[in-house]
């Protein structure tokens, strides 16, 4: 085998076309010249800076805590001069984790 008989396994790569926009050209998808065309271009969005300046909500918030349950005296059952206990009211009305006020 001699040099003039050698063949490539892969064809030559085509040179990149220096384009003027379009899909596969040099500046495609990069816009024009200037700050946005440079490598490492990372401009922060203004909205992000506004969000960062807002104070955080601190502390723990209990999901189970809701407002108090206000019952009228007619809804509390009485038997033989005894009022119903709050434990019994909770069972009857299936109220969990809330304060009961009778007004």
Describe the structure.
- It is built from 2 helices and 4 strands.
- By secondary structure, the protein is an alpha+beta fold.
- It has a domain at 69-102.
- It has a two-stranded parallel ribbon with strand order 1-4.
- It starts with 45 loop residues before the first helix and ends with a strand.
- The relative contact order is 0.10.
Keywords:
single chain, 103 residues, alpha+beta, two-stranded parallel ribbon, two-stranded antiparallel ribbon, 2 helices, 4 strands, 16% helix
Global geometry: elongated
Major sheet characteristics: 2 strands, parallel
What's the alpha carbon Rg, rounded to whole Å?
38 Å
Report, as a whole number of angstroms, the end-to-end distance: 107 Å
**Percent of residues in β-strands:** 5-15%
N-to-C SSE string, H for helix and E for strand = HEEEHE
Number of helices: 2
Spatial order of the strands forming the largest sheet: 1-4
Question: What's the β-strand tally?
Answer: 4
Structural class: alpha+beta
Fraction in helix: 10-25%
Residue stretches low in confidence (pLDDT < 50, at least 5 long) are none
Mean pLDDT level: 77
């Amino acid at each position: 085998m001699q040099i003039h008989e050698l063949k490539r396994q892969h064809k030559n790569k085509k040179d990149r076309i220096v384009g003027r926009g379009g899909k596969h050209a040099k500046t495609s998808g990069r816009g024009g010249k200037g700050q946005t065309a440079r490598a490492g271009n990372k401009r922060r969005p203004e909205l992000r800076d506004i969000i960062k300046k807002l104070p955080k909500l601190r502390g723990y918030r209990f999901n189970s805590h809701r407002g108090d349950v206000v019952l009228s005296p007619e809804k509390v059952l009485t038997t033989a001069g005894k009022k119903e206990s709050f434990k019994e009211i909770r069972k009857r009305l299936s109220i969990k984790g809330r304060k009961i006020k009778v007004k």
